[in-house]
Amino acid sequence: MSQLSYKLPVVIMKQGRSFVAYSPALDLSTVGKTLKDAQRMFAQAAKIFFDEIIKAGTADEILSELGWKKVQNKWSPPKLVSARAISIQEPIFA
User: Fold this and answer.
1) What DSSP element (H or E) covers 22?
2) Which of 1, 69, 73, 92 is most buried, judging by how many CB atoms fall within 10 Å of its CB?
3) Where do the structural domains in the chain lie, given as residue ranges?
4) Which pLDDT tens digit goes with each residue over 64-94?
């Protein structure tokens, strides 16, 4: 059995007492009580995600929709080119 190997960009944010791990490459997020917990939970969620789309026979369709590229039967996630805060100002309406 072949194995899928990949590195995903994962953003981890602190929200209150929790840590939220999110990857735009899968449009998938998880939450944990600690940073390590969020990372572990995300790895587990990603494994389940891949197991399910492979089992359903929809991996090619789903990964293509998420911007992954297939070259010589190997999938590559979209590359993260920036992860910085951007200042945005919006008028507030009462």
Assistant:
1) strand 18-23
2) 69
3) 11-76
4) 999 999 988 888 899 888 878 788 888 887 6
Buried/exposed 27-40: b ≥16 CB within 10 Å, e otherwise = ebbbebeeeeebbe
Which residues, 6+ apart, have CB-to-CB distance to 8 below 8 Å? 23, 25, 26, 46, 77
pTM over 0.70? The answer is yes
Question: If residue 43 lies in a helix (H) or strand (E), which one and from where to where?
Answer: helix 35-56
- pLDDT for 1 equals 47
Helix (H) / strand (E) containing 37: helix 35-56
Collapsing DSSP to helix, strand or coil, 45 comes out as: helix
Please name the residue that has the structure tokens 């507030």: 92
